[in-house]
């Protein structure tokens, strides 16, 4: 399919300016601007989340109708409390790494293949309500893990810390953030901005998060990135499926 919206510059100019700029075939942004936008944005979305895409945001969510929409409504509030005790995490460490509830071998394969980026390194896990990824990364020798999650999580495990996005934002803008060696995110970003988990409604929430990850990672670091792929589809408000349009947007400048 040929479409001007495959040109990220048009998307930037129509929907993302002035936060993003597009010059000479590349998009550009300032990390501080990205995190400052998040600081100034609501920390929570409407509850319950809207059953239909808000009419004033429909073109933004669908790239002017290019991405089809399928009804798949959920209201899974993230306002739960989780306790990640040493016992719980050790139980996960004793399990075969099958991407937690997703029963896929890809997580173990990718971690084993790029073990050198994990062993004795500091990493960030983005989006996690059960510590299967953290446990697997520790099994591969990670020195320290920082998990970023909206939900309330109490963790009692050596070299594991939990941050809410607002706290991560505060640390970054204060200048105290130290870029990490690797970032792991699996089945998380496809939900960003859809409101399913009580997060703010944002047609480009996933794109903005992806670019913030770029700011949090060392220049020679590694991103482990897992989302549903296929033809571009928006399952409102469950998740996105990433095809050639949305993936191209996500990986601009990576």
Strand content: 15-25%
Uncertain stretches of 5 or more adjacent residues: 1-5
Tell me the structural class. Answer: alpha/beta
Shape summary? globular
Please write the string of helix (H) and strand (E) elements. HEEHHEEHHEHEEEHEHEEEH
Percent helix range? 25-40%
How many DSSP E strands?
12
If you average the pLDDT, what whole number results? 90
Count the DSSP helices.
9
Rounded to the nearest angstrom, the distance between the terminal CA atoms is 24 Å
Q: For the largest beta sheet, what order do the strands appear in spatially?
A: 8-6-5-9-10
Question: What is Rg?
Answer: 18 Å
The profile of the biggest β sheet is: 5 strands, parallel
Task: Kindly summarize this structure in a few lines.
Helices cover 30% and strands 22% of the residues. The chain has 254 residues and is an alpha/beta fold.
List the keywords.
254 residues, alpha/beta, 5-stranded parallel β-sheet, 3-stranded mixed β-sheet, 9 helices, 12 strands, 30% helix
Question: Can you characterise this structure?
Answer:
- This protein has nine helices and twelve strands.
- It is α/β, with parallel strands linked by helices and 254 residues long.
- Helix 4 packs across helix 6.
- The protein is globular and about 50 Å long.
Spell out the blueprint of helices and strands.
Blueprint: H1 8-16, E1 21-23, E2 26-28, H2 31-40, H3 58-62, E3 69-72, E4 81-84, H4 86-93, H5 106-113, E5 122-126, H6 132-139, E6 144-148, E7 152-155, E8 160-163, H7 165-174, E9 180-186, H8 205-216, E10 217-226, E11 233-237, E12 239-241, H9 244-250
Parallel strand pairs: 3-11, 4-7, 5-6, 5-9, 6-8, 9-10
Antiparallel strand pairs: 1-2, 11-12
Helix pairs in contact: 2-7, 4-6
């Amino acid at each position: 399919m040929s479409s001007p919206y495959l040109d990220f510059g048009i998307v930037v100019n129509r929907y993302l300016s002035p936060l993003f700029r597009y010059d000479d075939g590349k998009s550009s942004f300032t990390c501080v601007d990205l995190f400052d936008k998040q600081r100034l944005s609501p920390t929570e979305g409407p509850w319950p989340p809207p059953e239909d895409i808000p009419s004033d945001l429909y073109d933004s969510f669908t790239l002017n109708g290019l991405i089809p929409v399928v009804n798949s409504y959920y209201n899974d509030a993230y306002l739960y409390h989780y306790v990640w005790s040493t016992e719980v995490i050790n139980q996960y460490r004793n399990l075969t790494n099958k991407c937690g509830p997703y029963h896929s071998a890809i997580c173990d394969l990718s971690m084993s293949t790029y073990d050198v980026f994990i062993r004795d390194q500091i990493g960030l896990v983005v989006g996690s309500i059960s510590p299967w990824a953290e446990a697997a990364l520790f099994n591969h020798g990670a020195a320290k893990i920082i998990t970023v999650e909206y939900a309330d999580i109490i963790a009692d495990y050596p070299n594991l810390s939990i941050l809410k996005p607002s706290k991560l934002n505060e640390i970054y803008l204060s200048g105290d953030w130290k870029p990490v060696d690797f970032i792991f995110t699996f089945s998380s970003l496809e939900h960003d901005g859809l409101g399913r988990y009580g997060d703010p409604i944002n047609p480009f929430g996933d794109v903005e998060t992806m670019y913030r990850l770029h700011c949090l990672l060392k220049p020679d670091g590694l991103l482990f990135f897992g989302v549903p792929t296929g033809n571009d589809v928006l399952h409102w408000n469950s998740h996105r499926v990433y095809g050639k349009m949305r993936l191209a947007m996500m990986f601009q400048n990576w």
